[in-house]
């Protein structure tokens, strides 16, 4: 699968303080679900190219907590994030809160909400509809747009490697 088959980075829908993205992955829905929910898989693709995930945990159940540490690709800086699972409907819907541990981009941390919906396509591919809402400002929206776009590019490459 080429990068274009993992879906070219479509332009995200930018609504005030809400990011919506859609991607088509040349991978079965179960694999995409596992990529999101298994820490040993998530660590291999999560985070933008310049801030890959270094470690993470999750308690995959409603009310369970998740944590991730992203590390700079050029310095020794790290960024911690985490949240709580609100909905877990395998293998189709994952809803969780998302919060940076420290001030990031534009002030003190605040809870935001991420929704991932996976649709199984007849040809075996998966359509992912991703929403990140509650972002505090245009600056935060732009930063998260860049981060998630890069992250989903990494996910597409990782899924393609898992399929070969």
Automatic annotation (TrEMBL):
- One Pfam family matching this protein: AHSA1
Query: Organism's domain of life?
Result: Bacteria
Species: Brevundimonas subvibrioides (strain ATCC 15264 / DSM 4735 / LMG 14903 / NBRC 16000 / CB 81)
**Identification of the protein by name:** Activator of Hsp90 ATPase 1 family protein
Q: What family is this?
A: Belongs to the AHA1 family.
Q: What is the lineage of its organism?
A: Bacteria, Pseudomonadati, Pseudomonadota, Alphaproteobacteria, Caulobacterales
InterPro entries with a match to the protein in the record: ASHA1/2-like_C (IPR013538), START-like_dom_sf (IPR023393)
User: For the Activator of Hsp90 ATPase homologue 1/2-like C-terminal domain, which residue ranges apply?
Assistant: 26-156
